[in-house]
Amino acid sequence: MQSPDEIRPNPDALLHALKKEEQQASKAKLKIFFGMSAGVGKTYDMLKSAHEARAKGIDLVIGIVETHKRPETEALLAGLPIIPRKKVEYKGTLLEEMDLDAIISRKPQIVLVDELAHTNAPGSRHTKRYQDVLELLDHGIDVYTTLNVQHIESRADTVAQITGSTIRETVPDSILEQANEVELIDIPPDELLKRLSEGKVYTPERSQQAIQNFFQKGNLTALREMSLRLTAERVDHQLRDYMQTKQISGPWKSGVRLLVGISASPHSVSLIRWARRMAYTMDATWIALYVETARVLPDSEKTQLAKNIKLARELGAEIITTADENIAEALVRVARQQNVTQLLVGKPRRTLSFRKSLMDQVIERSGNLDVYAIGGEESPAGRTTFSLPEIHSGLVQYGLAAGIVCLVSLLCFPLNSIIGYQTVALILLLVIALLPLRLGAGPVLLAAGFSALIWDYFFIPPRFTFAISTAQDILMLVTYFAIATVTGTLTARIRAREKAVRSREERATALYTLTRDLSNAPNQDEVAKAAVTNIRRFFKAEVAMFLSDQDGDVFTEAHRTSTFTVDEKEFSVAAWVYWNEKKAGRFTDTLPFATATYYPMSGPRYPLGVIGVKPAAEDRPTIDQEVLLENFIRQIASTLEREQLNEMTKKSIALAESDRLYKTLFDSISHELRTPIAAIVSASEGLMDASSIAQEPLRRDLNTEIHTAAERLNHLVENLLDMTRLESGRIAPVLDWTDIHDVINSAVRKLRRELSHHVVTIDVQAEMPLVKLDFGLMEQAITNLLLNASLYTPKRSKVHVRAFVEGSECVIVLTDNGPGFPKEALQKVFEKFYRVPGTKTGGTGLGLSIARGFVEVHKGTMKVENSLEGGARFTIRLPVQVGNHAEMPRT
Amino acid sequence: MSNQPTVLVIDDEIQIRRLLQITLEAAGYKVILAVSGEEGTQQAAMARPEIIILDLGLGDADGIDILKKIREWSTIPVLILSVRASEQDIVAALDAGADDYLTKPFRSGELLARVRAAHRHHQSTEQGTVFQTGQLVVDLTSRTVKKGGEIVKLTPTEYSLLSLFVRNAGRVLTHKYILEQVWGPTFQEESQYSRVYVGQLRKKLEDDPSNPQLLLTESGIGYRLAVED
């Protein structure tokens, strides 16, 4: 019986399935006309479908169709619009390719693209045609295309085995999965052979050749079976997907996770293809793991490794690299970390090994993991654990090693009679032991052998012959050679390990430095700067930065932090990367003629930008570097994303704020504006009334009313203007020497009338120095505080203003003995439009907020509290330059 | 009162023009109105007014430019009308040769006092050598300063600062102008000098130095010696 957990669909899988459905609904559709080989009629069928579509009124064009001069096929071209091919010149010959840009700008509903596995002419944007097709799909154009089974990456091996011819043009399996529809064009082999001999497929002489090679009946039968099986598998897969999305119970996604160990060996290729096939049939996700050891890979192996990793990625694997000296341990460790259920390892070819094979080691450690041994793959550890010394140190190193041995021997030569030949051996041994500090293992081994010979020839009696007279000397020579070799190799290995550790450490440090710099960057420009500096420093490369603006519009130029100038051609590569969110440029399959490699930085809603990297060295970056660089870019992208999200949040807060402001303006300000206007209108009308003109007291009252209302209006407008000035952020205080006493006086004088019923006392520190501040702004701040006191404290209240200098701060304290603020209001009094509930009308709720704003533009602080006596106390602290006028000439 | 001075009002707001006209005519001035900077400059040349009231925020031109144009050929006192929060503009206008300023909204009493002060200053550069306001008496010929009949001792700098105020009684003086006149052009940026010396003068001359009635601060602009009208 199954436990409920097993029956219930895994939410991740469900999500994935839904996503896929969604993607397919919104994305352009790919239809593949699939066949076992050439000549089955794929193009013919495709053209027929095209005619059907056109008859339905669908806008359809031919991007590229190869008729191979087959008359039946050619006849079908009639009536279908064709996008003219682009002529590409390559080494003097004109090649014709599909005009990708013309199709994209024409934007038909469906485009026909024949021969999906075609390799484009050098200089085209993409190396492979299927990449063109993916781009077309990304642009929302449906594609009809044709494909033979032998071109499918994971089957290429098998096909090669069956037919004996290698397949160069392949497409990744994922494209088949991406297809919405795969139409199998199937004819029995006999019929195909008949068509072939009738000359319907190739010209007669080519047909003859073909029948003898590829088109043997046995081959065709095998290919046919393969294509049928593939199509059946696909249908099975689709059914499972369908059941999952529709929540029909049944065999759920297996939850199987595969892990395949790959190495720099060419045999890894078939291992990877195996893994992919297995993953597909088991409906599992799979991981390709590369374990990096201390062994330094020669260039040829590095290239192979890069190829293997690329292949695995193309076939849909998740790539993980880890560093460990023990490969078996690493495989099992990562497998456990990643919840892998099956582990794939290459079956060892060498059986004559006194060490345990990698497979045995893995099995020993595997516990409940299933381990599969796949034939053909030489154990990736076979050589690493054995660690034969690499003979790929430069020639210079070998020369140097031999030279040093010669030199030391030459120096010892005259001393031989004094110190004896045994001592010479010790000296030489010392040299051999020291050599690995600078040289690779190969040269050290050479030096060991070479020095043994020299010692034998020049020092061991009889001298100047290789002959050795005593058994003791023979034993000594053998021992010498053994010690030299072991010391040399051991030291070399320790050194290599050390180097690997160091480089790993360097990488970790680099990432750490980057992360730290990025997290310290306060804005997008600084993030860009930190990114450029770090990439430049660590990869010794020039960097170009392209950032889309906050609204997601494409960049129009390189960011100013870029360290190389980007010409139009390079810019177009960056733009392509931006629109397609795929890396391109040098060392890639897309636009490889660019001088730099361009990496996209993807964001949640739109691409964040592009980074162009141009290494100073000519070599292709190593896989380590590539992985690290991609890590860097991910890190940078996520920081940029964070920055942009921040911006967005700020914007939305600002928007909400302005919404609130708008509403408050309507609710409160319109009331505040209308009241005095109403007063003015009715009072002035009263004045115009003939009867009131005669009455002097009435006239005066009406005048006073108008005046008060006008003052109130003026006050409100001033406040609104001040607020707007503050909000615009364009207030820059004009700092000048100021007598703070003067500022306070000025404010008090302004409010003479308002404060006429209050007792104001001013207490400025004796010998108060001049301080630098903006007179107008501070006067307004203090005015607002005083006005607040005058409005909200009872008549005859005391208002006390104190000012003094404390260190480099000017402190102004304003106290009143009124009722103070309610506790809950203390937090809010500086908020815009906040009014203490239950206070009398007439205020706008802006005065205190403005006062604090003006203090803050001085980089000062203002706080409010209730004093012990009960009244409110405002404390302003301004960081100021304090004058020293004692030094001034007094005359 | 045909010998009353003529005032040219340059303002593009009809309400302000009308208000100024009513107020000034009631005080006996002859008023000419101009609605634009261009008309204003023409009128200034043709009607030869004794005083010009110029709005800084004109529709067709910047008030400062009009002021500079007028100053090219004339020393007619010019009063600037402006709104608060444009102290820098006011200082710039004063430094460009304006005689005084008023911020909107202004009181009519204030307006008339400014007009009178500007006119008086312009008419009589060598007017009476003895100046009196309240208890303060300054004799510019004998260089004596008395307060309530008693001689006040001033340092030479204090005296030259005070005499500058006296010669411009009722008018606003910018910090820059004061520094230039008293300490010389190289001291234009040493604004602490004027602050400190005004403080010293206040201590010697004001009844309550912390609540000055004579030497008034014009916030963000400069100082003004108050006169009795």
Q: What topology does this entry show?
A:
The complex is a heterodimer of chains A (891) and B (229).
Chain A: H1 4-7, H2 11-26, E1 30-35, H3 42-55, E2 60-64, H4 71-77, E3 86-90, E4 93-97, H5 100-106, E5 110-113, H6 129-138, E6 142-148, H7 153-163, H8 173-178, E7 181-185, H9 189-197, H10 204-212, H11 217-245, E8 257-262, H12 268-282, E9 285-292, H13 299-314, E10 318-323, H14 327-337, E11 342-346, H15 358-366, E12 370-374, H16 380-384, H17 395-412, H18 416-419, H19 421-434, H20 441-459, H21 471-520, H22 524-539, E13 541-547, H23 568-580, E14 584-585, E15 597-601, E16 609-615, H24 623-688, H25 690-693, H26 696-728, E17 736-738, H27 740-750, E18 759-764, E19 771-773, H28 775-792, E20 798-806, E21 809-816, H29 823-826, H30 847-857, E22 861-866, E23 872-879
Parallel strand pairs in A: 1-6, 1-7, 2-5, 5-6, 8-9, 8-11, 9-10, 11-12, 18-20
Antiparallel strand pairs in A: 3-4, 13-16, 14-15, 15-16, 17-19, 20-21, 21-23, 22-23
Helix pairs in contact in A: 2-11, 3-4, 7-11, 7-12, 14-15, 17-19, 17-20, 19-20, 19-21, 20-21, 21-22, 21-24, 22-24, 24-26, 26-30, 27-28, 28-30
Chain B: E1 6-10, H1 14-26, E2 30-34, H2 37-46, E3 51-55, H3 63-73, E4 78-83, H4 87-95, E5 100-104, H5 108-123, E6 130-133, E7 136-139, E8 144-147, E9 150-151, H6 156-167, E10 172-174, H7 175-182, H8 191-205, E11 215-218, E12 222-225
Helix pairs in contact in B: 2-3, 6-8
Describe the structure in your own words.
The complex is a heterodimer of chains A (891) and B (229). With 891 residues, chain A is of the alpha/beta class. In chain A, 52% of the residues lie in helices and 15% in strands. Chain A contains 30 helices and 23 strands. In chain A, strand 3 (86-90) and strand 4 (93-97) form a beta hairpin. In chain A, helix 2 (11-26) crosses helix 11 (217-245), helix 21 packs parallel to helix 24 and helix 28 (775-792) packs antiparallel against helix 30 (847-857). The radius of gyration of chain A is 42 Å and the shape is flat. The termini of chain A are far apart. The model of chain A is unreliable at 1-7, 249-253 and 377-392 (pLDDT under 50). Chain B has 229 residues and is α/β, with parallel strands linked by helices. Chain B has 8 helices and 12 strands. In chain B, the strands form 3 sheets. A 5-stranded parallel beta sheet of chain B has the order 2-1-3-4-5, sandwiched between helices. In chain B, strands 6-7-8-9 form a 4-stranded antiparallel beta sheet, with helices on one face. A 3-stranded antiparallel beta sheet of chain B has the order 10-12-11. In chain B, helix 4 (87-95) links the parallel strand 4 and strand 5. In chain B, helix 2 packs parallel to helix 3 and helix 6 packs across helix 8. Chain B is globular and about 50 Å long. The relative contact order of chain B is 0.10. Classes of the chains: A alpha/beta (891), B alpha/beta (229). The A-B interface holds A 710, 714, 718, 721-722, 725, 734, 736-739, 741-743, 745-746, 762, 764, 770, 774-776, 779, 883, 885, 888, 890-891 and B 84-85, 87-88, 105, 155-157, 175, 191-193, 195-196, 199, 210-212, 217, 219-220.
